[in-house]
Amino acid sequence: MRTIPTLPKLATMFIDSHCHLDFPELQARLPEILHTMQTNRVSHALCVSVDLPDFPKVLALAEAHPHFWASVGVHPDYEDTPEPTLEQLVQLADHPKIIAIGETGLDYYRLTGDLEWQRERFRTHIRASRATQKPLIIHTRSASADTIRIMQEEGAGVAAGGAAGVMHCFTESLEVAEAAIGMGFYISFSGIVSFKSAKELQAVARALPLERILIETDSPYLAPVPHRGKMNEPGFVSHVAECLATLRGISVQEVADQTSANFARLFKVTL
Ligand SMILES: [Zn+2]
Ligand SMILES: [Zn+2]
Question: Positive or negative, the Cα torsion across 17, 190, 202, 240?
Fold first, then answer.
């Protein structure tokens, strides 16, 4: 792949804990995306894997850029894709720039029918996370009860001898958030929390301990206000932080400092 210009060292500000920069629409605009990150003081981003065929692209981004990391995993919405084995995930995760396993989880909203394969795939990822002690990135949609149950059954979370992790792009209830936090997990908010209609989610974002909150874009999807409807990119995560600061009545700097410290603690990286 072509070389990416290196950003000058920034003071740690915002970290985008979840983006898909390997998707063609973002990859094609990389120089511009790096520029917006710099302008909006977004110092780091975690590039999240969705399937094995595209994993080399995700890894290449992390290898080419000092401010990017990557994960390895197969998304629950990808039905017709090679199924990862435990051995494969463990082997691919054995790289200093691979700091997490996922994204994995359950999605009963996008897919219906017999989803036993989704649950089996989720179990494989939790086992890989336990084996590597790298945190899980969990996607859960309309499936929170099964998600928490399988996490418990497979020993996800520090208390059960597993690694911790994050419930990404969180849209569930306070009870689900608290159950995950009880297992040592973190909760990541995307641009959805900035949408006017997201009153219940905003109440969750107000109630949780700031020490357990991460911020993300999930770009190219779900651009936060004031970019709603546009293609999302990691630089826009600053708007998620601004929204959380307003909701909680604290400064944007406090949100930046705390969410970045949380990211470093969870993923065991030095900033
Ligand atoms: Zn997701
Ligand atoms: Zn994602």
Answer: positive
Ligand 1 centre from 169 Cα, in Å? 6
Question: Per-residue pLDDT for the chain (271 aa), expressed as one digit of tens each?
Answer: 555 666 555 555 999 999 999 999 999 999 999 999 999 999 999 999 999 999 999 999 999 999 999 999 999 999 999 999 999 999 999 999 999 999 999 999 999 999 999 999 999 999 999 999 999 999 999 999 999 999 999 999 998 999 999 999 999 999 999 999 999 999 999 999 999 999 999 999 999 999 999 999 999 998 889 989 899 999 999 999 999 999 999 999 999 999 999 999 999 999 8
Kindly state the greatest CA–CA separation across the chain: 49
**Cβ–Cβ contacts within 10 Å for residue 109, how many?**
12
Would you call the peptide bond into 31 cis, given omega within 30 degrees of 0 as the criterion? no
Q: How far is the CA of 8 from the centre of ligand 1 (A)?
A: 30
Give me ligand 2 centre to Cα 104, in Å: 9
pTM score > 0.85 for this model? Answer: yes
Distance from Cα 122 to the centre of ligand 1, integer Å:
13
